[in-house]
Amino acid sequence: GGAVSVDVPIASEETDVSERQQISIEEKECIAQYAASLIKDNDFVYIDAGTTTEKMVNYITNKNATYVTNGVIHARRLLQKGFDAIMIGGVLRASTEAAIGTIAVENVGRYNFTKCFMGANGVDINKGFSTPDVDEAAIKGAAISQSYESYVLADHTKFGRIASITFACIDEAKIITDHIEDPDYCKYTTVKAVEE
Q: Would the pTM of this model clear 0.85, i.e. be above it?
């Protein structure tokens, strides 16, 4: 048991935030700008820690919404912009600057979000949305289960990739991406390609 084909692109390692901030910069900006435009008055929004969701905070203009996040940088930027922001407590993970762990998952479970915006390391039709860290997967999955609408922000390089831990099936969230190379994803969920 446990054998895996060498052809499967499983990503078990995660680079730190400063490295990921330098990857697919223009694509992330387009995705982030579109995602921010989806926030409406009275929304109660969860924003996952991550580099694309971090860029999203820069484009948020709606002050008539409330924002909850597990991202340290995200919380600080939301406050600096004058928004109502709630930081989820928990253990801070250095490589992603995210609050994780049992307390974080319990705290997320208390809220009912109108929308959540998630990052992912892998997007695959069969394996869904995935990340390399089990604790990050737990909080991502909890936020999606507590949200009326869920969005995964993923540039085209994440498609067809599988990280170690699946946090949601492909049909549990809509995808916002720069462009889609495999139209089969559209059979399983809503995909918004912002550059097309």
A: yes
Instruction: Provide the token pair at 74.
Output: 């995200």
Average pLDDT value for residue range 10-34 = 67
Give the separation between CA 192 and CA 196, rounded to whole angstroms: 9
The token pair at 80 is: 């600096």
Structure tokens at 38: 């989806």
Of residues 164, 155, 163, the one with CA closest to residue 28 = 155
Whole-number Å distance between alpha carbons of 86 and 66: 8
Q: What is the 3-state secondary structure (H, E, C) of 64-129?
A: CCEEEECEHHHHHHHHHCCCEEEECCCEEECCCCEEECHHHHHHHCCCCEEEEEEECCEEECCCEE
Q: Which has the closest alpha carbon to 60: 43, 27, 71?
A: 43
The closest alpha carbon to 172, from 110, 111, 109, 130, belongs to 130
Q: What is the pLDDT of residues 113-156, one digit of tens each?
A: 999 999 999 999 999 999 999 999 999 999 999 999 999 999 99
